[in-house]
Amino acid sequence: MNRPLWKSIALCTLLTAVAPPCFAADLYRWTDDKGNVHYTDRVPPEYVQKGYRVINKQGLTVTTIAPQKVSEPEDKKAEAEKKEEMERDKRLLTIYSNADEITAARDRKIAEIKNSISLRRETLTLLEKQFRDQTREAGDYEKQGEPIPETLRSNINTTQKKIDSYEEAIKQYQQQLVDTQKQYADELTRYKEIKQAIEPETPAQ
């Protein structure tokens, strides 16, 4: 046998899945995508980021390289953000001819939301009156020592659910009102910035 004795020992050890007792030079222990463990004199480039161990000739781990976190390069993120910004700017210039149109669109949207809130508050007021009448009627039955009719109980529960639903709807519209005001304020500011960049004001003579 031409190869040194230590190589035979190392080969046998690997085949029996026992940590190698000795190597002539450092080896690398790495795992492939299928979970198979390999001992080689180099780590394939595609597996370097997955982490590996450096094994000395005594079969001991001398260095452990942890897996690297693969993240999107910052330049790509910046490029994506720049592209989104350009799309938003293009949309603004396409939809609006001047800043006054943004203000008018904002006012229309706000008026629409406020109208929706007003209508639901009117309905809520009617539901609350209906609920008070129903509970008062139920109280009269109890005062007389009579059981509350099942139909009345059902009507009370239904009315309460409607009240809860309208109250939640009003909250959502109120939040939509806040979001809309902020959205149009941001769009108006950005529109003016774009126009200033495209058509800088000419200094007065």
Average pLDDT rating: 84
Helical region count?
A: 4
Global structural class: alpha+beta
Q: What is the succession of H and E elements?
A: HEEEEHHH
The strands making up the biggest β-sheet line up spatially as 2-1-3-4
Number of E strands = 4
Poorly predicted runs of 5 or more residues: 1-24
Give a quick account of the main beta sheet: strands, pairing sense, barrel closure: 4 strands, antiparallel
Share in β-strands: 5-15%
Q: Give the CA-CA distance, first to last residue.
A: 98 Å
Radius of gyration: 37 Å
Helicity level, as a percent range? 55-70%
Large-scale geometry:
flat
Can you walk through the features of this model?
It is a single chain. With 205 residues, this protein is α+β, with helices and mostly antiparallel strands. It contains four helices and four strands; from the N terminus they run H-E-E-E-E-H-H-H. It has a four-stranded antiparallel sheet, with no helix packed on it. A hairpin with a 5-residue loop joins strand 3 and strand 4. It is flat. It starts with a helix and ends in a 7-residue tail after the last helix.
SSE map:
Elements: H1 5-15, E1 27-31, E2 37-40, E3 52-55, E4 61-65, H2 74-95, H3 99-143, H4 150-198
Antiparallel strand pairs: 1-2, 1-3, 3-4
Helix pairs in contact: 3-4
